[in-house]
Design a protein that fits this description.
Layout: H1 29-42, H2 49-62, H3 84-90, H4 98-107, H5 112-121, H6 133-137
Helix pairs in contact: 1-2
InterPro entries: Haem_peroxidase, Haem_peroxidase_sf, Peroxidase_pln, Peroxidases_heam-ligand_BS
Binding site for substrate: 92
Binding site for heme b: 122
Amino acid sequence: GCDALVLLNSTSNNKAEKEAIPNLSLVGFDVIDEVKTQLEKSCPGTASCADIVALAARDSVSYQFQKPMWEVLNGRRDGKISSQSEALANIPSHFSSFSILKQNFSRKGLTIHDLVVLSGSHTIGVGHYKFFSNRLYNFTGKGDSDPSLN
């Protein structure tokens, strides 16, 4: 997430966001850890993990163009408490219709524009077929598609 809570590991007292079912397919934690380790050697206490994640996302897209594709403002602070239950309560379900997603985002003070931008950013990575195939081919169990899909 934007405050790097997904990078925190579980403790004996707390299951972290990283272990929430929607996050189990995330990878690359070791890369962020290594970047943070190297930055701490050169500039202790300067870069947050949240900034590193934002910069890594930008750079992974920009790499093919051999130049940064957008400016990333730094100054994010890392969160300190990561909760599996918070992730489960706040990450939208892959079964949610557009109407439900609009309602959920609106409750958080976010707009349809925010919904599109945040959803689009999640196309970087892997979309697991099992999570959306029923909406394409067997929505009601009769070999049909979800009518809300264009």
